[in-house]
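Figure 6 in text form: structure in, sequence out.
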């Protein structure tokens, strides 16, 4: 009976590792719970944890933090360990090996000491004591880069949250608009049925019946367009959430959205980004200016050597301080300083332009919200009047005291009044969300300060 061959332990361990990794990839990765009925706040929180935009901003922040750690490495000494084996018949090198290994005696010919070898182990360390302030400035520049990345991450979150609220409201508006178009079609169909009966009894001209039939067809086309708008709004909303082909059900309205406590552009992450960018530019100017200053390094090494050829061994150490100063570098340092100064002036100008644009954006958002609130009030009154006029015209048409063309006009007025009221309500919600974004707030964040980003 043949014995089964056993796999080596290392291979078994590898197979177990990759099997576990595959299982984790397929079924054990944490997934966000998809709600059965979405609120706007749930949608925002889901998007912030699932959207590719969030992951991109997160990785950009991680990269900036890694760069900061690289810059901070200059504060630590460099320590290295090396080993080497060599054999030589060169008189100078051979004589050096003899001395290092303590194998010298009076019988050695200085001109021809013979063949020697050396197996050495060396530990080295180096530490920059002074670098003209360049290391400190590089740390400042890297820290400013981290601040920029974190501010960008918050800005991405706030913009994504606004787009989610906007998309959420677009679905609600499209659903209600679909109902408005459906009601309009049903009202025209009902009036067309009345017209059919009146025409059959000889109480209505054929052209009026045809006009109602044409209007019913137009109402059907508007209904199809509303269905398409709703489908597109749903798909755009899913894209914002990082989902696809997912059935979603939304609650009736956006709840919990409040006006921002303050209107101040200094809360905007774009403003904080430009401030960090300005700090980075000034730090890079200090890095360039450090080129005009000397560098001072401390160094040391310890070496152990063994020579199998002579069966000798020995150890030695070296320590010291070294200073370097560039007397002339072809004006490259001056050019670097001039370039860094220009960058600082450029960022200062960009900051001024950004402040003007952010103030304009904030004021525009405030005015748009004010306009949306007033427009909603007007459209609500218009809808009430149009609804009453349409109700009366239907009664009068049934009684034969109103022409079909007049009835069509009143039905159109009602449909458009309802559509305008729905659009005005959606515009008010979106304008409020946009004002929160323009003021530097998250959509459902009630705190005065932005949430800290880790």
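Output sequence:
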């Amino acid at each position: 009976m043949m014995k089964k061959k056993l796999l080596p332990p290392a291979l078994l361990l590898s197979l177990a590792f990759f099997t576990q990794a595959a299982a984790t990839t397929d079924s054990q990765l944490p997934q966000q719970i998809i709600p059965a009925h979405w609120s706007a706040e749930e949608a925002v929180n889901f998007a912030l944890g699932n959207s590719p935009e969030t992951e991109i901003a997160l990785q950009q922040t991680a990269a900036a933090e890694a760069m900061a750690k690289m810059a901070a490495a200059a504060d630590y000494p460099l320590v290295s360990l090396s080993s080497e084996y060599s054999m030589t018949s060169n008189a100078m090198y051979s004589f050096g090996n003899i001395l290092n290994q303590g194998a010298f005696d009076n019988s050695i010919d200085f001109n021809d000491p013979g063949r020697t070898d050396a197996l050495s182990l060396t530990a080295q360390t180096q530490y920059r004591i002074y670098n003209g302030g360049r290391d400190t400035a590089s740390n400042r520049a890297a820290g400013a880069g981290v601040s920029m990345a974190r501010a960008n991450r918050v800005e991405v979150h706030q913009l994504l949250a606004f787009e989610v609220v906007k998309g959420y409201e677009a679905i609600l508006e499209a659903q209600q608009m679909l109902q408005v178009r459906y009601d309009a079609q049903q009202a025209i169909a009902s009036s067309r049925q009345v017209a059919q009966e009146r025409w059959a009894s000889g109480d209505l001209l054929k052209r009026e019946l045809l006009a109602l039939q044409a209007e019913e067809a137009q109402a059907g086309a508007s209904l199809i367009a509303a269905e398409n708008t709703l489908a597109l709004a749903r798909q755009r909303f899913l894209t914002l959430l990082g989902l696809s082909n997912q059935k979603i059900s939304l609650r009736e309205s956006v709840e919990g959205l409040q006006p921002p406590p303050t209107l101040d552009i200094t809360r905007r992450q774009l403003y904080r980004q430009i401030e960090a960018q300005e700090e980075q530019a000034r730090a890079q100017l200090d890095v360039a200016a450090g080129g005009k200053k000397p560098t001072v390094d401390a160094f040391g090494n310890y070496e152990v050597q063994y020579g199998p050829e002579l069966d000798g061994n020995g150890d030695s150490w070296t320590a010291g301080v070294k200073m370097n100063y560039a007397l002339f570098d072809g004006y490259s340092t001056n050019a670097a300083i001039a370039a860094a100064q220009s960058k600082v002036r450029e960022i200062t100008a960009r900051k001024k332009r950004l402040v003007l644009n952010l103030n304009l954006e904030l004021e525009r958002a405030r005015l748009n919200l004010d306009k949306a609130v007033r427009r909603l009030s007007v459209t609500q009154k218009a809808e009430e009047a149009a609804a009453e006029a349409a109700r009366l015209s239907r009664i009068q048409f049934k009684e034969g005291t109103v022409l079909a063309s007049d009835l069509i006009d009143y039905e159109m007025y009602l449909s458009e009044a309802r559509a305008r009221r729905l659009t005005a309500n959606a515009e008010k919600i979106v304008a409020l969300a946009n004002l929160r974004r323009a003021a530097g707030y998250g959509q459902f964040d009630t705190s005065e300060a932005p949430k800290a980003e880790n």
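Caption detail: Confidence is low (pLDDT under 50) at residues 1-30, 447-454.
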